[in-house]
Amino acid sequence: MDYEFSRNSFDDSYRIVFSMGHEAMGRWLLDELGTELSHVERYLETLHQLDSEQQWHGHTFTLTANQDEVVVMANAMLQTPSDEAEATLSAQALTFYDQESCAACGYDDFIEMLEAYRDFIVRYGRR
Fold it and tell me: Is residue 108 within 8 Å of residue 116, measured between CB atoms?
């Protein structure tokens, strides 16, 4: 999993780019954690002490973690349609957005990425 964090000093915006198949990780970082160092540190602390599967429901994404894998999934993908026709349309529509809506990686890789994001915020965060 490759990623890059950057900050545009002109308009104070942040950009997070992940390798293909992991795009949802970047969206999760910005949508759920933003640049709040305390949020990142709270997740890191909990993940370092993880001994069973845990799930966090955010505004846009749900994060599920165990000692082997971490999955980020858009909350919209977790909702079940009310009837079969709606389910078929939803499945077809979501096929195009799966890569941006769901991503998985190894537990150790996720911790490493989150620590890199913490370091980025410390160095380049809002002043």
Answer: no
Contacting residues for 111 by C-beta, under 8 A, at least 6 apart: 44, 47, 48
| Integer CA distances (angstroms), 1 to 32, 56, 63, 98, 126, in order | 20, 22, 17, 17, 26
Q: Which residues contact 63 (CB under 8 A, 6 or more apart)?
A: 28, 32, 55, 56, 70, 71, 72
CB neighbours of 55 closer than 8 A, spacing ≥ 6? 62, 63, 64, 65
Q: Does the pLDDT at position 96 exceed 50?
A: no
Q: What is the value of pTM for the model shown?
A: 0.82
At 56 the three-state DSSP class reads strand
Rg over CA atoms, the chain? 16
User: In whole numbers, what is the pLDDT of the chain averaged over residues?
Assistant: 86
